[in-house]
Amino acid sequence: MSPTTGRVDLEKARRAYDAGRERRLKTGGKVTLRATASIIKDAYIEGRIGKYHFACDEPPERGGEDRAASPLEFFLIGAAF
User: Which residues contact 30 (CB under 8 A, 6 or more apart)?
Assistant: First the structure.
């Protein structure tokens, strides 16, 4: 069985880990992530981290319009990953 037939390419993951480790060594071990968010209307929020854009909202019973996942739902899926 080749190493890439499974769901995770372990060799690719190892190379990415090693590359990240090298970057951290060059910067003194510091990594900075920056996220921004803006309230658009009521409980609807749009945010960005890196190149990724997100939106969240609350259901009507909590003052939103249920146009996107709630912050709690984002938290839970993050914990699942």
Answer: 24
